[in-house]
Amino acid sequence: MFAADIRRRRVSRMKGFCHWQWQWHVDEMYVKINGEMCYLWRAVDHEGEILESYVTKSRDKAAALTFLKKALKRHGKAEKIVTDGLRSYPAAMRELGNLQRREMGRYLNNRAENTHLPFRRRERAMLRFRQMIAA
User: Fold this and answer.
1) Closest Cα partner for 41 from 62, 20, 22, 21?
2) Please, which pLDDT band fits residue 127 given cuts at 50, 70 and 90?
């Protein structure tokens, strides 16, 4: 059994059980995929487990709305959704009727920001590897 399987089982068990106390941390990051710059949207639970990922070319209300709908459909409601200052989040959450669940603060979203680090390390390592082959 691999770590991804364990996480999937754990999250699926928690899905219907205690979603009322779940706190999500939502964030986006700029990544290069096949030489093209895109946005990777991520939702992380209060324990640091990645719940949902979504890739788009834009960082607007429509992208945030699609991502949040996907996360809510798959994992149910959360008690709080912690975001950064991006204006697309309140616009999308207002449309979903979840604006009162949104929490925003300077350091509150560090859990989501820290999940980007392994991805960045892997991205950097792959870039170095490509450069060594080219050389």
Assistant:
1) 62
2) low
Q: 33 lies in which domain range?
A: 3-134
Q: What is the pLDDT of residue 66?
A: 96
Distance, CA of 65 to CA of 49 (rounded, Å): 21
What CATH number does residue 130 fall under? 3.30.420.10
User: Residue 79 and residue 28: Cα distance in Å, rounded?
Assistant: 20
Side chain identity at residue 33, one-letter code: I
In the block, tokens 């979603």 appear at 19
Unique residue bearing structure tokens 């603060």? 105
pLDDT of residue 20 exceeding 70, the answer is: no
Number of neighbours of residue 37 by Cβ within 10 angstroms: 9
Domain count of the fold of the chain = 1
